[in-house]
# Entry
Amino acid sequence: METKLARIARIAKERPKERITSLAGLIDKESLTERHNQLNGRKAAGVDQVTKDEYESNLENNIESLVEQMKRQAYKPQPVKRVYIPKPGTDDKRPLGILAYEDKLVQSVLSDILNAVYDGDFLDCSYGFRPNRGCHDALKAVNKIIQDKNIHYVVDADIRGFFDNMDHEWIMKFIDHRIADVNLRRLLVRFLKSGLMENGERHETLVGAPQGGQVSPILGNVYLHYALDLWFEKVIRKRFKGAAYMVRYADDSVFCFERKEEAQEFYRLQATSPGRVIFSPRKGEGPVEERGLAP
# Structure
């Protein structure tokens, strides 16, 4: 599986304008069994109430049945179980999605496929949920920019409720840029539309990708690559005369500017750009303001 993914990653990077085909077939008996062996058996169960040990008791038949369903396009993800966990540093809680066991397996392999296709496209300013990158690397990048560049103004921004509010139509438009495999795109739509189960009630998922889902981080990176990273790189930096840099970790971003008037212009451009994303200042920095992002 690693060899196949490495080959896809190489092709995707060498041919940045090419749409990749024949990807869904990588979600096969071998890759699903490998992912089962790697999953943490102590994780909470989803709406199916199936644990790793229970699934393993009839592993070969379970995997073969899952693969057969996928080949017949009969596989349908189950609703995501929603729970709430404390948000560090605040009294708030954030929603977390817990997938059914087979959905965890499929999404985990699907996430690796999407990472192989897209990681070579992502800009160097993106650090969240990427191979060999982490939050400490993002902090080091911010420190280096501030120390080495002529920076005087820093904008620290968070996108409020990002994972719960990603637009499904835009997600699939961004996916279509690089993936031509109809079966893989159909599978992604089914995951996005699988619904949520909260307090025994099922809710439709018309927007968003639940935090906790294995595929949500890479979908978030794909979304913000097109909606934010490229916008800042191709529009903002070319428009401004002073130094301008950004560092993003998932939906948290730091924007660095040399000139005060250009930092202020950055806010104005957001407000007049197409698309809407909520930028939430850090606690104690004033009310939440609505800013626009170019899709």
